[in-house]
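Q: Can I see a sequence and its folded structure?
A: Here is a first one.
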Amino acid sequence: MPPVNTQPIEVVNLLSELEKKFDTVRRLRQPYERKWYENAAFFFGNQWSVYNPSTGKLYNPPAPSWRVRLTVNLIFPAVRILLGKLNKIKFSLICVPKSKEEEDVAAAKIGTKVLAYLRKKLLFVVKQFQICFLMLIFGICFVKTYWDSEANEEFTVQVPDDFNPEEMKEEKLRLGDVNSVVCSPFELFFDPTATIEIQEAEYIFQAKVRSTKYVKEKYGVEVKPTPGLYVSPIEQSINLLLNKNLQAVEHDLVLLKEYWEKPTKEYPDGRHIIFTSSEILHSENMPTKFYPFVAFPYFPTFFTIYPTTLIQNLIPLQKEYNRSRSQVIENKNLLTKGKLLIPVNCKVARNAFTSEPGEKIYYDSRYGKPEQLDLKPLPNYVFTNIVHIRNEIMDIAGIHDVSQAKVPSGIRSGLAIAYLQEQDDSQLGVTYSLLELGYAEVGHQMLEIVKDNYIEPRLIRITGREHEADVFYFQGSQLRDNTDVEVEVGSIMPFSKVARQQFVIGLWDKGIVRDPKRILEMLEFSTEEDVFDTTALDEANARIENQEMDKGIQQIAQVWDAHQIHLKIHNIHRKDRKFINLSPERQQLFQLHIDAHEKFLQAEIKKMMIMAQAQQGMMGGGQPPKR
């Protein structure tokens, strides 16, 4: 007798509605999944498998023992080169003010600092690699940005007791924080009408394998495990497609699903539901005005959410390349050992014709003599075709000699090589633009979440360009709704490091840039911090003095300070709007401090002039000419 469902009818109906929707979108996505599995298999070198549509699995067809199945994986190095090209782009997230008002400009500056803090805290350097890798393998991936209420360390507060309000009890809380994770396309399911503009989708599912212990600790509900689950949907699906009879871990895993639905007439605030196949774990209105996902396509097709992948276009050529190379080896084996025409009754031993020198082979001459079959080698066009296939694979991937550190024939000019490298990189222009748009949207979502959830002051620590520490307290309300974000990528300099260095040296030679420290920064000089160690230290000290004098604390100029550097940093600060808004008393602190530096500097100049006059007198015995 089946167990009786004791859940309220509303919960049963809701679960039925969600499971029906989920099953529909899962079936509609299956044709794309087959391509993703095949892409992953070819990237990792499993390139002789065949898809069986009746079983829905990949399998290796049987073959005789002499059959050669050589795999020369050209997809792996192509993806590796493209991954390097995509990851070498450095970018910054810039908060854009919504107006020219001073308050909005100041809020945007704070927003930019908060974005720098979150990028470092959330390890966006690692996420950039994950994004680019999944884009190249599956054609698309997603970044989920959300408020993690369990982030940060626990702290204890005193709250009124539920049963006796006059008494206080301790309660452990967490401040929570923004979090951002990269999701593979296997995790997300979209409504059938969705396109690459995922914010226009009617609803979105996210499915992720979790342990029953995780669900119990996070939601306080004991749920039944889902049969046949592996650690992740990707592992489960690929293992099934490869027909591997791996034992599934069934005792404590469950498929945890999240459902987002944008506002409708029936649900004007939208819906966000977390559930399993048997339980509703959490239900609320949409916590944000947007879906918490940003798509990162490699090359989009705007009429569907799942674009064509690079590997998908390389697979036919890769198959033909492996087949041709295998045929060459088979032909070599055939010509090495050959084939023999042996009369049926000539009584030649089956183990005859070995590679032993001086071997004697006995046969009955009455029935004929064994003869070597005349075999011909493969024609030259077979080898020519192999070269063509390899070049075509690299052409489709947009990788040529310069991207593989090879100098094209007939090219000797370094400028010409740099230009070719630039042209090779320009084929990724669309992907670079899509990455910029995606990063900007992720930054916008982070600031929107920060604005609504940073209620208490947060301590923000960032390191500036000059390695100076910037520490301040921040609340979400300080953004003043300035949450639009743009991406600042590199500059007008070329992508190639060699070409970039040549470009920068040209700026120095032509006198366009005369600051040696700036030149070293542009060249990415590895020892610039050592070369300018004392300069950076004085600049950092001067900025600290600026911060202290902004607070009304007098700073004393020291004789060992680099006075020219201090004067430069202090005067730049005095041009800032923040300084102009200081009280006259605090502005006077800056003037007194600067006067002290100028006094020290004048003394140094006077001392140097005396030394120069003395040295000139020793050399020429006269006085310096009068002006």
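Q: Show me another, different protein.
A: A second, unrelated one:
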Amino acid sequence: MTPRWRTRLAQIVALLALLLVTAGFYWKLTISREWTFLEGPDLANVVRPWLDFEAREFHAGRFPLWDPYEWAGHTLIGQVQPGITNPLNWILFAMPLRDGHIPLTTLHWYWVLIHWLGAMFCYALCRDLGAGYMASLLGGCIFALAGFLGHTDWPQILMSSIWVPLVLLFFARAARGHTPASSAALCGAALGMAFLSGHHVVPTFTMVLVGALWLVYIALEWHRPARWGHVAIFASVWLLVSAAQVLPAIEYAKQSLRWAGAAEPLRWGQPVPYDVHAKYSLGWPSVGGIVLPGISLHANPHVGFVAVALALAALWYRRRDACVRWFGLVAVGGLLLALGKDFPPYWLIYRFVPMVEKAREPAMAIVLCQVGIAVLAALGADACRRAWRHRWIAVLALGLFLGEAVYDAPRLARFDRPGSYAALIRGQADIAEFLKAQPGWFRVDFDENDVPYNFGDLYGIEQFGGAGSSLPLRIHRWLGNPAAPRLFGIRYWVGRRPSDPAQQEVFRSRSGLAVYRDPRIAEPLWTWRDLPCGATDRLRVVSRQPERFVIEADLACPGLVVAGDSYYPGWRAWVDGERRPIQELDAVRAVRAGAGRHVIEFRYRPASVYWGFGLTVLGFALVAFLCWRR
């Protein structure tokens, strides 16, 4: 028997080797200062500003649930993609900032370390199935450096994908009868973590595939009540753990429009059309891309010849091995889901399995196929080593695979390329300096052709606008309304020319853009009454934070104090310390107060978040209990 310290040392060496390989594979990000993954439109316009805002809030000692810098206030946690419920992101947000921004070097290492975690989780899966150290390193590299994971740039999608190996690890333990109750709980917890990670598509298809595996697990011995109990544990833990993200997302979905590729934006209860799923399917022509580079549609499936050859070797040499059969099903199932419209039963899955219609990109399910191939390749490398009696098979295979992966490495962008987003943002930084120096409470609107990124989140300036895939219904109804600037206090416009004749140029940026001020727009803070009042009210902003807004009001007559922030469930109001209901007035918030002086406080305290986090904690407590009981 190998001493325990040697086993642990070997595991540490293997994880360090994975880190070294991952950092070396992405050397353009870890060593060079000329390349970045952040030059894609969505990453530059949306993701980087989100991460900066969330990090600033962490450093201010606040947990960011509400984003005041887009569209007169917008739920952050309900949008899902900011990834605020992902505990791994909290480490990023706690890292040192530079001038209120996360340094690009930190973001680059964050992206690389996500891949390392994926490699580590797949390595753990391969080791748990009995593969050797070197073969498991190969499996981890196939999963993290090639195909979907290797070529996806969105960190939210990567974060939701790296949990797939752990979901399958604990399912495989349950299927082997290894502490099945606690393994089922850990399987559900891993799937719940995927839903907490910031994107729903890969976790949804993982749910479909793992649900099918659990059905097979029951069918093999359906007469055993214990197996039904294991499935119930899995489902309960998954739903509980994911609640912190799912409940706020459902609340937001009921209040918003979503742009999902359909002809018109979709409301709650309107399914994403099947045509959209068909458009974003992988398709049969891309299947050859699993072996040959450069053949892909909507998702990169390429893992290379070495990985596929070793996976086939596992299916041949270990065809009687139950775990090989399970992961053969995983690889085939992931591929069929990714084919989407080219797999006829997919329509039934779309139609009858809950949540699938909202996962509009079936091509992303190729990551499930990829993890199946990675595991089979690791098992195949060991099988070839035994069959051919050559101990260096796994080392040779790893070297050949890395050669294929380097040839088809992800295409990163240079900072100095013409028209780069980095240069655009640097050139417009003086606009933020000017706006921050302006007194009072106001909002800014931008010409999106000149400022396509979420300027407000990036710099902490309230913006009536913002790039994204959804928008609150109440705000959408006011777009284009001539009364909107007064309602929401849109005092400034940034562009090459004014958007209204009344606007006056007050600043010229070195980028060529100008800032225009509308002298007619005051602070979006006023009173409203059914009957006129003969005296003047005085209102003053005392404190304004993302989730707390304090006003001093001196009212001549009773009435509604109106703040030009978007009305949304979860906001609560206190007048002189007494709780008062918030009323909706023209899509913004209002609270009733009597004559005289008052201190009015608005706070964001959403029940969906409290219930969600409570259920998530309960889910983890259930996992801990079952593991302790084991």
